[in-house]
Amino acid sequence: MSCSATRTASMRTAYGEALVEVGRTNPNVVVLDADLSKATKTSLFAEAFPDRFFNIGIAEQNMTTVAAGLATCGKIPFATSLAVFSTMRACEQVRTSVALTNLNVKIVGFYGGLCTAENGPTHQCIADLGVMRPLPNMTVLAPADAPSCKACVRWAVEHPGPVYLRGLRDGEPVLYDETGPADVSRIQIHREGNDGAILVNGFMLHLALEAADRLAARKIHITVADVITIKPIDQKTLLEIAGNVPCVLSVEEHNVLGGMGSAVAEVLAQKHPLPMRIMGVPDVFSNSGKHSLLLEAAGLTTEKIVENAVELLAAT
Amino acid sequence: MTTVSQPGIKDTTQELARWARLLRYDTLRMISNAASGHPGGCMSMAEILTCLYFHEMKVDPQQPDWLDRDRFILSKGHCAPILYAALARKGYFPVDELRNLRKIGSFLHGHPDISTPGVDMTSGCLGQGLSAAVGMAMAGRIDRRDYRAFVVIGDGEMNEGQLWESAASASHFRLDRIIVVLDFNALQFDGTVHEVSNPGDVRGRWKSLGWNVLEIDGHDIPQILDALRQADECRGRPTIVVAHTIKGKGVPFMEGDYLWHSLMDNDLLTSFVKEMHDELQRDPDGFDADRLW
What is the dihedral of CA A108, A111, A114, A120, to 10 degrees? Predict the structure, then answer.
Protein backbone atom coordinates (compact mmCIF):
# COMPACT_ATOMS: atom_id res chain seq x y z
CA MET A 1 0.00 0.00 0.00
CA SER A 2 2.53 2.54 1.11
CA CYS A 3 5.51 3.45 -0.98
CA SER A 4 8.20 6.02 -0.32
CA ALA A 5 7.92 9.30 -2.16
CA THR A 6 10.11 9.21 -5.21
CA ARG A 7 7.86 11.39 -7.32
CA THR A 8 5.12 13.96 -7.05
CA ALA A 9 1.79 14.22 -8.84
CA SER A 10 -1.03 16.73 -9.17
CA MET A 11 -4.02 15.97 -6.99
CA ARG A 12 -6.18 18.19 -9.17
CA THR A 13 -5.33 16.20 -12.28
CA ALA A 14 -5.89 12.98 -10.36
CA TYR A 15 -9.34 14.26 -9.39
CA GLY A 16 -10.26 15.11 -12.98
CA GLU A 17 -9.03 11.72 -14.17
CA ALA A 18 -10.91 9.91 -11.42
CA LEU A 19 -14.13 11.73 -12.38
CA VAL A 20 -13.73 10.55 -15.97
CA GLU A 21 -13.09 7.03 -14.71
CA VAL A 22 -16.21 6.90 -12.49
CA GLY A 23 -18.19 8.79 -15.15
CA ARG A 24 -17.46 6.03 -17.60
CA THR A 25 -18.74 3.26 -15.34
CA ASN A 26 -21.60 5.14 -13.68
CA PRO A 27 -23.92 7.18 -15.91
CA ASN A 28 -25.43 8.90 -12.87
CA VAL A 29 -22.22 10.77 -12.06
CA VAL A 30 -22.58 14.45 -12.93
CA VAL A 31 -20.12 17.25 -12.24
CA LEU A 32 -20.66 20.90 -11.41
CA ASP A 33 -18.10 23.64 -11.20
CA ALA A 34 -18.15 27.32 -10.35
CA ASP A 35 -16.00 28.82 -13.12
CA LEU A 36 -12.83 27.07 -11.95
CA SER A 37 -12.99 23.97 -14.12
CA LYS A 38 -9.52 24.51 -15.54
CA ALA A 39 -8.09 24.83 -12.04
CA THR A 40 -10.01 21.95 -10.45
CA LYS A 41 -9.58 19.83 -13.61
CA THR A 42 -13.27 19.08 -13.83
CA SER A 43 -12.56 20.26 -17.39
CA LEU A 44 -11.41 16.69 -18.07
CA PHE A 45 -14.89 15.42 -17.21
CA ALA A 46 -16.49 18.26 -19.21
CA GLU A 47 -14.59 17.15 -22.32
CA ALA A 48 -15.50 13.50 -21.83
CA PHE A 49 -19.15 13.97 -20.83
CA PRO A 50 -20.36 17.42 -21.90
CA ASP A 51 -24.02 16.52 -21.25
CA ARG A 52 -23.28 15.68 -17.63
CA PHE A 53 -21.18 18.71 -16.81
CA PHE A 54 -22.60 22.03 -15.65
CA ASN A 55 -20.54 25.15 -15.22
CA ILE A 56 -22.74 27.14 -12.88
CA GLY A 57 -20.59 30.26 -12.91
CA ILE A 58 -19.24 32.01 -9.85
CA ALA A 59 -22.23 31.07 -7.74
CA GLU A 60 -21.27 28.41 -5.21
CA GLN A 61 -24.45 28.74 -3.16
CA ASN A 62 -26.54 28.08 -6.23
CA MET A 63 -24.22 25.26 -7.34
CA THR A 64 -24.64 23.47 -4.04
CA THR A 65 -28.44 23.48 -4.08
CA VAL A 66 -28.52 22.68 -7.82
CA ALA A 67 -26.42 19.62 -6.96
CA ALA A 68 -28.96 18.69 -4.31
CA GLY A 69 -31.76 19.02 -6.87
CA LEU A 70 -29.88 16.68 -9.22
CA ALA A 71 -29.40 14.21 -6.38
CA THR A 72 -33.16 14.11 -5.68
CA CYS A 73 -33.46 12.66 -9.20
CA GLY A 74 -30.88 9.93 -8.67
CA LYS A 75 -27.79 11.71 -9.93
CA ILE A 76 -24.47 11.63 -8.07
CA PRO A 77 -23.22 15.20 -8.33
CA PHE A 78 -19.68 16.31 -7.57
CA ALA A 79 -20.01 20.04 -6.81
CA THR A 80 -16.52 21.38 -7.12
CA SER A 81 -14.82 24.64 -6.23
CA LEU A 82 -12.14 25.88 -3.88
CA ALA A 83 -12.35 24.62 -0.30
CA VAL A 84 -12.97 28.10 1.04
CA PHE A 85 -15.99 28.64 -1.21
CA SER A 86 -17.38 25.09 -1.24
CA THR A 87 -17.50 24.94 2.54
CA MET A 88 -17.79 28.53 3.65
CA ARG A 89 -19.44 30.67 0.97
CA ALA A 90 -21.99 27.90 0.53
CA CYS A 91 -21.95 26.66 4.11
CA GLU A 92 -25.64 27.06 4.84
CA GLN A 93 -26.57 25.50 1.50
CA VAL A 94 -24.35 22.51 2.31
CA ARG A 95 -26.06 22.21 5.67
CA THR A 96 -29.64 22.59 4.46
CA SER A 97 -29.68 21.24 0.90
CA VAL A 98 -27.12 18.47 1.35
CA ALA A 99 -26.56 17.44 4.98
CA LEU A 100 -30.08 17.87 6.35
CA THR A 101 -31.61 16.19 3.30
CA ASN A 102 -28.95 13.44 3.45
CA LEU A 103 -28.78 13.58 -0.35
CA ASN A 104 -26.08 11.87 -2.37
CA VAL A 105 -24.05 15.02 -3.05
CA LYS A 106 -20.27 15.17 -3.07
CA ILE A 107 -18.87 18.56 -2.10
CA VAL A 108 -15.31 18.99 -3.30
CA GLY A 109 -12.98 21.83 -2.33
CA PHE A 110 -9.48 22.25 -3.67
CA TYR A 111 -6.63 24.28 -2.22
CA GLY A 112 -7.41 23.04 1.28
CA GLY A 113 -4.99 24.38 3.87
CA LEU A 114 -2.38 26.94 2.87
CA CYS A 115 -1.43 25.52 -0.54
CA THR A 116 -2.94 28.34 -2.56
CA ALA A 117 -0.08 30.14 -0.83
CA GLU A 118 0.62 33.27 -2.89
CA ASN A 119 -3.10 34.00 -3.27
CA GLY A 120 -3.12 34.84 0.41
CA PRO A 121 -5.46 34.24 3.33
CA THR A 122 -8.62 35.18 1.39
CA HIS A 123 -8.25 32.00 -0.64
CA GLN A 124 -6.50 29.72 1.84
CA CYS A 125 -8.74 27.50 3.89
CA ILE A 126 -7.80 26.37 7.38
CA ALA A 127 -11.36 25.93 8.69
CA ASP A 128 -13.10 23.64 6.19
CA LEU A 129 -12.75 20.43 8.19
CA GLY A 130 -13.98 22.14 11.33
CA VAL A 131 -16.95 23.60 9.47
CA MET A 132 -17.95 20.34 7.76
CA ARG A 133 -17.38 17.96 10.66
CA PRO A 134 -20.32 18.98 12.91
CA LEU A 135 -22.85 18.67 10.09
CA PRO A 136 -24.87 15.50 10.74
CA ASN A 137 -24.78 12.97 7.85
CA MET A 138 -21.59 14.49 6.42
CA THR A 139 -18.55 12.32 5.72
CA VAL A 140 -15.26 14.23 5.63
CA LEU A 141 -12.27 13.05 3.59
CA ALA A 142 -8.82 14.62 3.30
CA PRO A 143 -6.43 12.57 1.15
CA ALA A 144 -2.67 13.11 1.01
CA ASP A 145 -1.76 12.38 -2.58
CA ALA A 146 -3.00 11.72 -6.09
CA PRO A 147 -3.70 7.98 -5.77
CA SER A 148 -5.55 8.38 -2.48
CA CYS A 149 -7.57 11.27 -3.94
CA LYS A 150 -8.64 8.96 -6.77
CA ALA A 151 -9.52 6.29 -4.22
CA CYS A 152 -11.65 8.86 -2.35
CA VAL A 153 -13.58 9.69 -5.53
CA ARG A 154 -14.25 6.02 -6.21
CA TRP A 155 -15.25 5.46 -2.57
CA ALA A 156 -17.60 8.48 -2.61
CA VAL A 157 -19.45 7.18 -5.67
CA GLU A 158 -20.03 3.83 -3.99
CA HIS A 159 -21.19 5.28 -0.67
CA PRO A 160 -24.55 7.08 -0.82
CA GLY A 161 -24.83 10.26 1.19
CA PRO A 162 -23.13 13.59 1.62
CA VAL A 163 -19.35 13.69 1.39
CA TYR A 164 -16.90 16.54 1.68
CA LEU A 165 -13.64 15.84 -0.13
CA ARG A 166 -10.79 18.21 0.66
CA GLY A 167 -8.40 18.47 -2.25
CA LEU A 168 -4.97 20.04 -2.38
CA ARG A 169 -3.16 21.29 -5.46
CA ASP A 170 -0.15 20.01 -7.41
CA GLY A 171 3.17 18.49 -6.60
CA GLU A 172 2.05 16.35 -3.67
CA PRO A 173 4.57 13.54 -3.00
CA VAL A 174 3.11 10.21 -4.09
CA LEU A 175 2.91 8.03 -0.99
CA TYR A 176 0.54 5.28 -2.10
CA ASP A 177 0.84 2.89 -4.99
CA GLU A 178 -1.18 3.59 -8.09
CA THR A 179 -4.44 2.08 -6.86
CA GLY A 180 -4.34 3.99 -3.58
CA PRO A 181 -5.65 2.66 -0.27
CA ALA A 182 -8.13 -0.18 -0.60
CA ASP A 183 -10.53 1.41 1.88
CA VAL A 184 -10.15 5.13 2.53
CA SER A 185 -12.56 4.93 5.45
CA ARG A 186 -9.87 3.08 7.46
CA ILE A 187 -6.86 4.74 9.03
CA GLN A 188 -3.84 3.80 6.91
CA ILE A 189 -0.74 2.76 8.84
CA HIS A 190 2.48 3.71 7.04
CA ARG A 191 5.05 3.04 9.79
CA GLU A 192 4.76 0.92 12.90
CA GLY A 193 6.53 1.60 16.17
CA ASN A 194 5.70 1.50 19.87
CA ASP A 195 7.48 4.61 21.11
CA GLY A 196 4.72 6.94 20.00
CA ALA A 197 2.28 7.61 17.16
CA ILE A 198 1.78 10.42 14.69
CA LEU A 199 -1.71 10.75 13.29
CA VAL A 200 -1.51 12.86 10.21
CA ASN A 201 -3.29 13.66 6.96
CA GLY A 202 -3.08 15.67 3.76
CA PHE A 203 0.16 17.31 2.72
CA MET A 204 1.62 16.71 6.18
CA LEU A 205 1.89 12.95 5.60
CA HIS A 206 5.22 13.06 3.79
CA LEU A 207 6.67 15.36 6.47
CA ALA A 208 5.56 12.94 9.18
CA LEU A 209 7.20 10.06 7.32
CA GLU A 210 10.45 12.05 7.06
CA ALA A 211 10.19 12.84 10.76
CA ALA A 212 9.70 9.14 11.52
CA ASP A 213 12.85 8.29 9.56
CA ARG A 214 14.86 10.87 11.50
CA LEU A 215 13.47 9.60 14.79
CA ALA A 216 14.29 6.01 13.78
CA ALA A 217 17.88 7.10 13.25
CA ARG A 218 17.77 8.11 16.93
CA LYS A 219 16.32 4.70 17.86
CA ILE A 220 12.87 6.14 18.41
CA HIS A 221 10.34 4.03 16.55
CA ILE A 222 6.95 5.56 15.97
CA THR A 223 3.76 4.70 14.18
CA VAL A 224 2.68 7.00 11.38
CA ALA A 225 -0.95 6.73 10.33
CA ASP A 226 -2.90 8.61 7.67
CA VAL A 227 -6.36 9.69 8.83
CA ILE A 228 -7.97 10.15 5.41
CA THR A 229 -11.51 9.91 6.76
CA ILE A 230 -11.89 12.42 9.55
CA LYS A 231 -15.56 11.73 9.96
CA PRO A 232 -16.71 9.15 10.74
CA ILE A 233 -13.27 8.52 12.18
CA ASP A 234 -12.01 4.94 12.23
CA GLN A 235 -12.24 4.50 16.00
CA LYS A 236 -11.22 0.86 15.95
CA THR A 237 -7.84 1.44 14.33
CA LEU A 238 -7.32 4.64 16.30
CA LEU A 239 -7.84 2.85 19.61
CA GLU A 240 -5.60 -0.04 18.50
CA ILE A 241 -2.84 2.44 17.75
CA ALA A 242 -3.40 4.29 21.02
CA GLY A 243 -3.27 0.99 22.91
CA ASN A 244 0.28 0.35 21.74
CA VAL A 245 1.92 3.72 22.40
CA PRO A 246 2.46 6.06 25.37
CA CYS A 247 1.53 9.26 23.51
CA VAL A 248 0.03 10.64 20.31
CA LEU A 249 0.94 13.61 18.13
CA SER A 250 -1.47 14.85 15.46
CA VAL A 251 -0.27 16.90 12.50
CA GLU A 252 -2.49 18.63 9.95
CA GLU A 253 -2.61 21.60 7.60
CA HIS A 254 -5.71 23.02 9.25
CA ASN A 255 -6.46 25.23 12.19
CA VAL A 256 -5.47 23.45 15.41
CA LEU A 257 -9.11 23.96 16.38
CA GLY A 258 -11.77 21.70 14.97
CA GLY A 259 -9.87 19.54 12.47
CA MET A 260 -8.41 16.03 12.48
CA GLY A 261 -6.51 16.58 15.75
CA SER A 262 -9.75 17.57 17.44
CA ALA A 263 -11.48 14.50 16.02
CA VAL A 264 -8.72 12.25 17.35
CA ALA A 265 -8.74 14.00 20.74
CA GLU A 266 -12.52 13.61 21.03
CA VAL A 267 -12.15 9.85 20.75
CA LEU A 268 -9.05 9.46 22.92
CA ALA A 269 -10.25 11.77 25.69
CA GLN A 270 -13.36 9.65 26.10
CA LYS A 271 -12.10 6.15 25.39
CA HIS A 272 -8.38 5.99 25.93
CA PRO A 273 -6.94 9.15 27.52
CA LEU A 274 -3.23 9.57 26.94
CA PRO A 275 -0.81 12.46 26.46
CA MET A 276 -1.41 14.21 23.16
CA ARG A 277 -0.25 17.24 21.20
CA ILE A 278 -2.08 18.81 18.28
CA MET A 279 0.08 20.39 15.58
CA GLY A 280 -1.56 22.49 12.91
CA VAL A 281 -1.94 26.05 11.76
CA PRO A 282 -2.11 28.21 14.89
CA ASP A 283 -5.43 29.98 15.27
CA VAL A 284 -4.38 32.94 13.12
CA PHE A 285 -4.79 33.83 9.46
CA SER A 286 -1.71 33.20 7.36
CA ASN A 287 -0.01 35.37 4.76
CA SER A 288 0.71 35.57 1.03
CA GLY A 289 3.87 33.75 0.03
CA LYS A 290 5.52 30.48 -0.91
CA HIS A 291 3.73 27.44 0.49
CA SER A 292 6.91 26.12 2.13
CA LEU A 293 7.47 29.45 3.90
CA LEU A 294 3.87 29.63 5.11
CA LEU A 295 4.17 26.12 6.51
CA GLU A 296 7.43 27.08 8.18
CA ALA A 297 5.77 30.14 9.74
CA ALA A 298 2.98 27.89 11.00
CA GLY A 299 5.52 25.52 12.52
CA LEU A 300 4.59 22.72 10.13
CA THR A 301 8.00 21.34 9.18
CA THR A 302 9.77 18.01 9.56
CA GLU A 303 12.07 19.57 12.18
CA LYS A 304 9.14 20.81 14.25
CA ILE A 305 7.41 17.44 14.06
CA VAL A 306 10.59 15.76 15.33
CA GLU A 307 10.95 18.40 18.03
CA ASN A 308 7.35 18.02 19.20
CA ALA A 309 7.60 14.23 19.16
CA VAL A 310 10.77 14.25 21.25
CA GLU A 311 9.33 16.73 23.76
CA LEU A 312 6.11 14.76 24.04
CA LEU A 313 8.03 11.48 24.55
CA ALA A 314 10.22 13.08 27.18
CA ALA A 315 7.20 14.29 29.10
CA THR A 316 5.52 10.87 29.16
CA MET B 1 -52.58 41.57 -16.59
CA THR B 2 -53.65 38.44 -18.39
CA THR B 3 -57.34 38.36 -19.16
CA VAL B 4 -59.18 35.13 -19.67
CA SER B 5 -62.59 34.06 -20.73
CA GLN B 6 -62.73 30.39 -21.43
CA PRO B 7 -66.00 28.61 -21.92
CA GLY B 8 -66.52 25.69 -19.57
CA ILE B 9 -64.05 26.91 -17.00
CA LYS B 10 -66.75 28.03 -14.59
CA ASP B 11 -67.29 24.61 -13.03
CA THR B 12 -63.58 24.07 -12.67
CA THR B 13 -63.22 27.48 -11.09
CA GLN B 14 -65.98 26.80 -8.59
CA GLU B 15 -64.53 23.43 -7.69
CA LEU B 16 -61.04 24.87 -7.24
CA ALA B 17 -62.40 27.76 -5.18
CA ARG B 18 -63.95 25.20 -2.82
CA TRP B 19 -60.63 23.40 -2.52
CA ALA B 20 -58.88 26.70 -1.80
CA ARG B 21 -61.40 27.43 0.91
CA LEU B 22 -60.81 24.03 2.48
CA LEU B 23 -57.03 24.44 2.34
CA ARG B 24 -57.40 27.80 4.08
CA TYR B 25 -59.45 26.17 6.79
CA ASP B 26 -57.02 23.26 7.24
CA THR B 27 -54.09 25.64 7.37
CA LEU B 28 -55.57 28.00 9.94
CA ARG B 29 -56.70 25.09 12.05
CA MET B 30 -53.22 23.57 11.96
CA ILE B 31 -51.56 26.83 12.97
CA SER B 32 -54.11 27.43 15.69
CA ASN B 33 -53.52 23.87 16.97
CA ALA B 34 -49.76 24.24 16.89
CA ALA B 35 -50.01 27.74 18.37
CA SER B 36 -47.26 28.82 15.99
CA GLY B 37 -46.65 29.22 12.29
CA HIS B 38 -46.98 31.69 9.44
CA PRO B 39 -50.58 32.19 8.38
CA GLY B 40 -50.36 35.38 6.27
CA GLY B 41 -48.30 33.94 3.43
CA CYS B 42 -50.29 30.70 3.42
CA MET B 43 -53.50 32.61 2.82
CA SER B 44 -52.01 34.62 -0.04
CA MET B 45 -51.00 31.48 -1.96
CA ALA B 46 -54.14 29.38 -1.40
CA GLU B 47 -55.50 29.71 -4.95
CA ILE B 48 -52.03 29.27 -6.49
CA LEU B 49 -51.36 26.03 -4.61
CA THR B 50 -54.88 24.76 -5.25
CA CYS B 51 -54.53 25.29 -9.00
CA LEU B 52 -51.19 23.49 -8.98
CA TYR B 53 -52.17 20.43 -6.94
CA PHE B 54 -55.82 20.10 -7.94
CA HIS B 55 -55.53 20.95 -11.61
CA GLU B 56 -52.14 21.46 -13.18
CA MET B 57 -49.57 19.10 -11.72
CA LYS B 58 -49.02 15.56 -12.90
CA VAL B 59 -48.57 13.74 -9.59
CA ASP B 60 -49.70 10.46 -8.07
CA PRO B 61 -50.14 10.34 -4.30
CA GLN B 62 -49.95 6.55 -4.47
CA GLN B 63 -46.45 6.84 -5.94
CA PRO B 64 -44.81 9.87 -4.33
CA ASP B 65 -41.45 8.91 -5.89
CA TRP B 66 -42.78 8.36 -9.42
CA LEU B 67 -39.88 9.40 -11.65
CA ASP B 68 -42.02 11.21 -14.21
CA ARG B 69 -44.03 13.25 -11.73
CA ASP B 70 -44.02 17.02 -11.81
CA ARG B 71 -41.88 18.37 -8.97
CA PHE B 72 -43.00 21.00 -6.51
CA ILE B 73 -40.79 23.12 -4.30
CA LEU B 74 -42.24 25.51 -1.77
CA SER B 75 -39.29 27.88 -1.69
CA LYS B 76 -41.17 30.09 0.79
CA GLY B 77 -41.05 27.11 3.10
CA HIS B 78 -42.48 28.90 6.13
CA CYS B 79 -45.82 28.39 4.42
CA ALA B 80 -45.50 24.63 4.96
CA PRO B 81 -48.96 24.27 6.57
CA ILE B 82 -50.85 24.97 3.38
CA LEU B 83 -48.57 22.59 1.48
CA TYR B 84 -49.29 19.89 4.06
CA ALA B 85 -53.00 20.61 3.74
CA ALA B 86 -52.80 20.18 -0.03
CA LEU B 87 -50.79 16.96 0.30
CA ALA B 88 -53.20 15.52 2.85
CA ARG B 89 -56.25 16.44 0.76
CA LYS B 90 -54.58 14.89 -2.30
CA GLY B 91 -54.11 11.68 -0.31
CA TYR B 92 -50.37 11.57 0.40
CA PHE B 93 -51.15 11.02 4.08
CA PRO B 94 -54.27 11.06 6.30
CA VAL B 95 -55.89 14.42 7.01
CA ASP B 96 -55.74 13.43 10.68
CA GLU B 97 -51.96 13.87 10.57
CA LEU B 98 -52.51 17.62 10.15
CA ARG B 99 -53.26 17.72 13.88
CA ASN B 100 -49.57 17.01 14.47
CA LEU B 101 -48.04 20.02 12.74
CA ARG B 102 -44.82 21.07 14.52
CA LYS B 103 -45.17 18.31 17.09
CA ILE B 104 -42.25 16.10 18.03
CA GLY B 105 -42.32 12.77 16.23
CA SER B 106 -44.50 14.01 13.36
CA PHE B 107 -43.17 14.32 9.83
CA LEU B 108 -44.95 17.66 9.53
CA HIS B 109 -41.97 19.82 10.46
CA GLY B 110 -42.08 23.57 10.90
CA HIS B 111 -40.65 23.87 7.40
CA PRO B 112 -40.91 21.33 4.57
CA ASP B 113 -38.65 18.32 4.83
CA ILE B 114 -37.85 15.92 2.02
CA SER B 115 -38.73 12.97 4.27
CA THR B 116 -42.42 13.95 4.32
CA PRO B 117 -44.50 12.01 1.75
CA GLY B 118 -45.03 14.26 -1.26
CA VAL B 119 -42.38 16.84 -0.35
CA ASP B 120 -39.81 16.97 -3.13
CA MET B 121 -37.27 19.18 -1.41
CA THR B 122 -36.42 20.53 2.01
CA SER B 123 -36.97 24.28 1.99
CA GLY B 124 -37.53 27.31 4.11
CA CYS B 125 -34.04 28.72 4.27
CA LEU B 126 -35.06 31.36 1.81
CA GLY B 127 -33.80 31.85 -1.72
CA GLN B 128 -32.86 28.21 -2.33
CA GLY B 129 -35.90 26.60 -3.97
CA LEU B 130 -35.23 27.67 -7.52
CA SER B 131 -31.68 26.26 -7.35
CA ALA B 132 -33.09 22.84 -6.47
CA ALA B 133 -35.54 23.12 -9.37
CA VAL B 134 -32.62 23.89 -11.70
CA GLY B 135 -31.00 20.62 -10.61
CA MET B 136 -34.25 18.70 -11.07
CA ALA B 137 -34.77 20.15 -14.54
CA MET B 138 -31.18 19.34 -15.52
CA ALA B 139 -31.72 15.74 -14.39
CA GLY B 140 -34.95 15.62 -16.42
CA ARG B 141 -33.07 16.76 -19.49
CA ILE B 142 -30.30 14.16 -19.02
CA ASP B 143 -32.88 11.41 -18.53
CA ARG B 144 -35.17 12.68 -21.31
CA ARG B 145 -38.16 12.96 -19.02
CA ASP B 146 -40.60 15.78 -19.60
CA TYR B 147 -41.71 16.50 -16.06
CA ARG B 148 -41.88 20.09 -14.90
CA ALA B 149 -40.49 21.67 -11.76
CA PHE B 150 -42.83 24.17 -10.12
CA VAL B 151 -41.54 26.59 -7.53
CA VAL B 152 -43.51 29.03 -5.40
CA ILE B 153 -41.33 31.86 -4.16
CA GLY B 154 -42.13 34.74 -1.86
CA ASP B 155 -41.39 38.34 -2.64
CA GLY B 156 -39.16 38.74 0.40
CA GLU B 157 -36.99 35.98 -1.08
CA MET B 158 -35.94 38.41 -3.77
CA ASN B 159 -33.67 39.90 -1.07
CA GLU B 160 -31.58 36.73 -1.26
CA GLY B 161 -28.62 36.68 -3.64
CA GLN B 162 -28.92 32.98 -4.34
CA LEU B 163 -32.33 33.49 -5.92
CA TRP B 164 -30.74 35.61 -8.64
CA GLU B 165 -27.90 33.14 -9.13
CA SER B 166 -30.49 30.45 -9.76
CA ALA B 167 -32.61 32.73 -11.94
CA ALA B 168 -29.58 33.26 -14.19
CA SER B 169 -28.84 29.51 -14.30
CA ALA B 170 -32.40 28.51 -15.20
CA SER B 171 -32.30 30.90 -18.12
CA HIS B 172 -28.69 30.15 -19.10
CA PHE B 173 -29.43 26.45 -19.40
CA ARG B 174 -32.77 27.19 -21.13
CA LEU B 175 -34.70 25.16 -18.58
CA ASP B 176 -38.18 25.69 -19.95
CA ARG B 177 -39.64 22.99 -17.70
CA ILE B 178 -39.21 25.33 -14.74
CA ILE B 179 -42.25 27.36 -13.79
CA VAL B 180 -41.96 29.79 -10.90
CA VAL B 181 -44.93 31.48 -9.28
CA LEU B 182 -44.08 34.59 -7.31
CA ASP B 183 -46.54 35.12 -4.48
CA PHE B 184 -46.28 38.89 -4.63
CA ASN B 185 -48.20 39.97 -1.54
CA ALA B 186 -45.76 42.85 -1.09
CA LEU B 187 -45.31 42.26 2.65
CA GLN B 188 -42.49 40.54 4.46
CA PHE B 189 -41.65 39.94 8.09
CA ASP B 190 -40.57 43.47 9.00
CA GLY B 191 -42.91 45.47 6.77
CA THR B 192 -43.64 46.17 3.13
CA VAL B 193 -41.16 44.93 0.55
CA HIS B 194 -40.40 48.56 -0.25
CA GLU B 195 -39.71 49.43 3.38
CA VAL B 196 -37.36 46.50 3.88
CA SER B 197 -35.32 46.38 0.66
CA ASN B 198 -35.96 47.89 -2.75
CA PRO B 199 -37.41 45.15 -4.97
CA GLY B 200 -36.78 47.30 -8.06
CA ASP B 201 -38.62 46.60 -11.28
CA VAL B 202 -39.59 43.01 -10.52
CA ARG B 203 -40.88 42.24 -13.99
CA GLY B 204 -37.86 43.87 -15.57
CA ARG B 205 -35.37 42.02 -13.40
CA TRP B 206 -36.67 38.62 -14.52
CA LYS B 207 -37.15 39.72 -18.11
CA SER B 208 -33.59 40.97 -18.34
CA LEU B 209 -32.38 37.52 -17.32
CA GLY B 210 -34.28 36.00 -20.22
CA TRP B 211 -37.37 34.72 -18.44
CA ASN B 212 -40.86 34.54 -19.86
CA VAL B 213 -42.73 36.83 -17.46
CA LEU B 214 -46.50 36.68 -16.96
CA GLU B 215 -48.43 38.85 -14.54
CA ILE B 216 -51.77 37.97 -12.98
CA ASP B 217 -54.12 38.43 -10.06
CA GLY B 218 -53.01 35.55 -7.85
CA HIS B 219 -56.48 35.02 -6.39
CA ASP B 220 -58.22 34.80 -9.76
CA ILE B 221 -58.40 31.10 -10.57
CA PRO B 222 -59.03 31.42 -14.33
CA GLN B 223 -56.06 33.77 -14.59
CA ILE B 224 -53.85 31.33 -12.68
CA LEU B 225 -54.90 28.40 -14.87
CA ASP B 226 -54.34 30.40 -18.02
CA ALA B 227 -50.89 31.52 -16.90
CA LEU B 228 -49.89 27.94 -16.06
CA ARG B 229 -51.06 26.84 -19.51
CA GLN B 230 -49.03 29.60 -21.17
CA ALA B 231 -46.02 28.68 -19.07
CA ASP B 232 -46.29 25.04 -20.12
CA GLU B 233 -46.38 26.03 -23.78
CA CYS B 234 -43.35 28.31 -23.52
CA ARG B 235 -40.20 26.76 -25.01
CA GLY B 236 -36.55 27.68 -24.66
CA ARG B 237 -36.82 29.71 -21.48
CA PRO B 238 -38.27 29.36 -18.01
CA THR B 239 -41.44 31.16 -16.95
CA ILE B 240 -42.24 33.22 -13.92
CA VAL B 241 -45.83 34.07 -13.08
CA VAL B 242 -45.87 37.26 -11.05
CA ALA B 243 -49.02 36.72 -9.02
CA HIS B 244 -50.30 39.78 -7.19
CA THR B 245 -51.87 38.64 -3.96
CA ILE B 246 -53.09 39.86 -0.61
CA LYS B 247 -51.31 38.64 2.47
CA GLY B 248 -53.82 37.04 4.83
CA LYS B 249 -56.43 36.79 2.04
CA GLY B 250 -59.74 35.40 3.27
CA VAL B 251 -59.22 36.35 6.90
CA PRO B 252 -60.49 39.91 7.42
CA PHE B 253 -58.28 40.78 10.37
CA MET B 254 -55.22 39.38 8.63
CA GLU B 255 -55.56 40.88 5.17
CA GLY B 256 -52.79 43.32 4.36
CA ASP B 257 -51.31 43.28 7.87
CA TYR B 258 -47.63 42.36 7.81
CA LEU B 259 -47.76 41.54 11.52
CA TRP B 260 -49.74 38.43 10.60
CA HIS B 261 -46.74 37.05 8.73
CA SER B 262 -46.39 35.01 11.90
CA LEU B 263 -49.10 34.04 14.34
CA MET B 264 -50.05 37.23 16.19
CA ASP B 265 -53.02 36.36 18.37
CA ASN B 266 -53.99 32.73 18.72
CA ASP B 267 -57.24 33.42 20.59
CA LEU B 268 -58.43 35.55 17.70
CA LEU B 269 -57.32 32.94 15.18
CA THR B 270 -58.89 30.07 17.10
CA SER B 271 -62.28 31.76 17.29
CA PHE B 272 -62.07 32.51 13.55
CA VAL B 273 -61.29 28.86 12.86
CA LYS B 274 -64.40 27.84 14.84
CA GLU B 275 -66.55 30.23 12.84
CA MET B 276 -65.07 28.95 9.62
CA HIS B 277 -65.73 25.37 10.66
CA ASP B 278 -69.39 26.14 11.32
CA GLU B 279 -69.73 28.03 8.06
CA LEU B 280 -68.22 25.19 6.08
CA GLN B 281 -70.63 22.77 7.73
CA ARG B 282 -73.62 24.97 6.96
CA ASP B 283 -72.53 25.75 3.40
CA PRO B 284 -74.91 23.91 1.06
CA ASP B 285 -72.13 23.88 -1.51
CA GLY B 286 -69.63 22.87 1.11
CA PHE B 287 -68.09 19.70 2.39
CA ASP B 288 -69.33 16.72 4.28
CA ALA B 289 -68.79 17.04 7.99
CA ASP B 290 -66.40 14.11 7.93
CA ARG B 291 -64.11 15.96 5.57
CA LEU B 292 -63.64 18.61 8.22
CA TRP B 293 -61.75 18.20 11.47
Answer: -120
Q: At which of A125, A147, A173 does a domain end?
A: A173
* Mutation for A interface: B73, B122, B123, B148, most A CBs within 10 A: B122
Q: What total number of domains does chain B contain?
A: 1
Q: Does B131 sit within 8 Å of A70, measured CB to CB?
A: no
Domain of B142, CATH number, reads 3.40.50.970
d(C-alpha A21, C-alpha B162), whole Å: 32
Residues A66, B132: C-beta atoms closer than 8 Å? yes
B202, amino acid identity: V
Contact B13, B6 (CB under 8 A): no
Residue from A52, A72, A94, A137 to probe the interface with B (highest B Cβ count within 10 Å): A72
Digit-coded pLDDT (tens) for A79-138: 999 999 999 999 999 999 999 999 999 999 999 999 999 999 999 999 999 999 999 999
Q: Express each pLDDT in B61-113 by its tens digit.
A: 999 999 999 999 999 999 999 999 999 999 999 999 999 999 999 999 999 99
Contact between B114 and A77 using a beta-carbon 8 Å cutoff: no
- Residue/partner pairs of B101-107 with CB below 8 Å, 24 or more apart: B101/B30, B101/B31, B101/B33, B101/B34, B101/B37, B102/B34, B102/B36, B102/B37, B103/B34
- The answer to whether B135 contacts A96, with C-beta atoms less than 8 Å apart, is no
- Cβ contacts (< 8 Å) between B136 and chain A: which residues? 69-70, 72-73
Chain B interface includes A241 (CB < 8 A): no
Instruction: Supply φ then ψ for residue A296, to 5 degrees.
Output: -60, -45
Structural domain range at position B21:
9-291
Integer Cα distance of A189 and A226 in angstroms: 6
Active site residues of A: 60
